[in-house]
Description:
heterodimer; A: alpha+beta; five-stranded mixed β-sheet; B: four-stranded antiparallel β-sheet
Amino acid sequence: MTPLTGSSGRRGPVAVTSTVIRFRLNGHAIEALVPIRLTAAELLRDRLGLTGTKVSCQLQVCGVCTVLVDGNPVSSCATLACDLDGTEVVTIEGLARGRDLHPVQEAFMEAGALQCGYCTPGFVMMTVGLLTAHRNPDRAMVQEWLDGNLCRCTGYQPIETAVMVAARQMTPRASEPEPEGDR
Amino acid sequence: MAVLPELGLIRSADLGEVLAAVDGDHVPYAGGTELVPAMSLGLRRPAAIVDLKRLDALDRIEIDAAVGTVMIGAMVTHRRLAHHRAVRDHLPTLAGAAARVGNARVRSVGTIGGNLCFAEPRSDLGCVLVALRATAEAVSVRGSRTLTIEELVIGAFETSLAADEILTTITVPFEPTAMSYWKLQSYERPTLGVAVIVTATDWEITVGAATERPTRAVLAVGDTAGLDGFIDELELSDDLGGPPAYKRSVLRARLDNGLGVAR
């Protein structure tokens, strides 16, 4: 083994317990000093007041904490806030334009795809992530993407229907390639 | 209320600095899909995490057409693995398995290297990589070494990596034509995974998820007695996914069907 050096007995760069992050949140520039232990869900909910993102299982199983980071759905409860540095984050609060709901939100209303509503922000964000990556998903793909989100009220059929309705609403010209194609 | 205890971060784009920082108390950190929940549950209590995500060299996918291998950086996410053209062309079974790891959020950030290093038995990629006879490159300040996936994953949640070593690259030979991977899954992790490669002479069978680590048998085509022996002798886990007898029954039916064994 290479001998250790330095007064701490350790080599290499020193650990920090907090760091400054800069990222875009729902289109707005954010700069924050965050402890490393802080999760993205804690930053969003407790420090920035965006409580639309929910927290439940904290094991990446239930999906209620889903937000989009650079277009990809992630579990904000299991993401460290320090990892948001340099990213573009979208939460449920970032979808509507004033009183005009996002097509996915409209589709969930139209299909009766919510009851108590606790899981809904997660399902809506996962759906937006899916339709960002795949504009014309089939039911199997919808199930594959929503497999990691739990609802204990409605059952999943109305939610699947809402996703299919939203996909039709948002369908662009057929000639446009799938964004999540080969890369 | 914070879910995590006090935690340090070491972040560098320089491999040498990262290697100098990693030890038992300063642990490699990639997608965090396993480590962050493990820390919040108190199962892991490192003083600091050492972020590997800024090491660009660990994020590459490269083809060596002359040798017939795909080199996959340890930081490549499941989603990228699933959608990468060259991986889909040369390793379609691996790409297909990566497309179904965990859930869509886990696939956004979870990495192939993290998957192997956490060595969760109920996992898909380890089984597929053992079947493909992939190798892994481990690096520390003391140098680098190449090991097979069986040498890397030595038990449930246990690898042969030293505390100061990180996994950098997984090298995977191009997939043979007759390969399949099938899994049984009822909850968020697989209950049973079976990778099968049929060559002109051999049945190569790798079983994962229900075993402590992926377990492979190479049998002559048509050796049903050998197949029975392999299935009967596997030590299968007893958990929420089902008792060993159930998993053995499913495994036997799957292999009989897949290999065309008549009983």
